[in-house]
Amino acid sequence: MELRTLRYFVAVAEELHFGRAATRLHMSQPPLSRAIKQLEADVGAQLFTRSPAGVTLTRVGTVLLDEARALLDHADRVQVRLNAAAGAATITIGILGDGTDPGVARLAAAYRRHHPGIDIRIRDTDLTDPTCGLHAGLVDVALTRAPFDVTALTVRALRTDPVGVVLRADDPLARRDGLRLADLSDRRWFQFPQGTDPIWQAYWNGGRPRQGPVVRAVQECLQAVLWNGTVGLAPLGHDLPTELAVVPLIDMPPSRVVAVWNEGDTNPLIRSFVEIATTAYRH
């Protein structure tokens, strides 16, 4: 029973869908299906009940999932200890924007439990680089929001958040239950500096060029709204000062929280970070 096959199994068991699991594993679906069928043959029992809507775990599959997670965790710990002995037990994590997200706190606690003694370095970044320094080699893995240019990067989606419009509390639009992008066509927006990833810029500008003050950080965005009466977008569910309000934007694609790392990087500390993050953001 190979560790790689067990990782395939865990991905299918967590996604409960072969297509989504294949996407997560960055492979096509047919070899994934063959690997799971071979695993079932090796185990001597069916691990999944298959249907057009997806899959569900059998009783044997549920037992194997617990054991597989334990085995994979142990294998990662062994690799980390070997790296530590070789002087490589350090990971640098880039975090974008608001670190008050409860998912970050759950992830930090779980990662410390799994990797005591590892030197964890945090790079808190502003809104001008959604990769948090990955392209520049400043971090090993980033906890950020999509969309952005993913050339030579690997991305794991962790959570999807609806997006709202940030307004002054005394703005007439703040009394609305929901807004559309067309309702904001005559408003000034905050924007990011020239040279910022155009995919990222376009998303937070509602899909087209805007005019307004240039900002680099979350607090600058909020102050731009407060002082200049501009509007901007933000994920729903974050606490705001009483002087500001956020109204759901009903025709805006949701914002995805993602873990991202350099394509082909096999550092077990990164792999462990991504798997722990997947669990932490599922709650």
Give a structural overview.
By secondary structure, this protein is an alpha+beta fold. It has helices at residues 3-15, 18-25, 29-43, 59-85, 102-114, 198-204, 218-228, 268-280, and strands at residues 48-51, 54-57, 90-96, 119-125, 141-146, 153-161, 163-168, 232-235, 244-248, 255-262. It has a five-stranded mixed sheet with strand order 4-3-5-10-6, with helices on one face. Strands 8-7-9 form a three-stranded antiparallel sheet. Strand 3, helix 5 (102-114) and strand 4 (119-125) form a beta-alpha-beta unit. Helix 4 (59-85) packs across helix 8 (268-280). The protein is globular, with a radius of gyration of 22 Å. The two termini are 30 Å apart. The mean pLDDT is 87.
Summarize the structure.
This protein is of the alpha+beta class and 283 residues long.
Question: How are the SSEs ordered, and which strands pair?
Answer:
Elements: H1 3-15, H2 18-25, H3 29-43, E1 48-51, E2 54-57, H4 59-85, E3 90-96, H5 102-114, E4 119-125, E5 141-146, E6 153-161, E7 163-168, H6 198-204, H7 218-228, E8 232-235, E9 244-248, E10 255-262, H8 268-280
Parallel strand pairs: 3-4, 3-5
Antiparallel strand pairs: 1-2, 5-10, 6-10, 7-8, 7-9
Helix pairs in contact: 1-2, 1-3, 1-4, 4-8, 5-8
List keywords for this structure.
single chain, 283 residues, alpha+beta, 3-stranded antiparallel β-sheet, 10 strands, 21% strand, globular
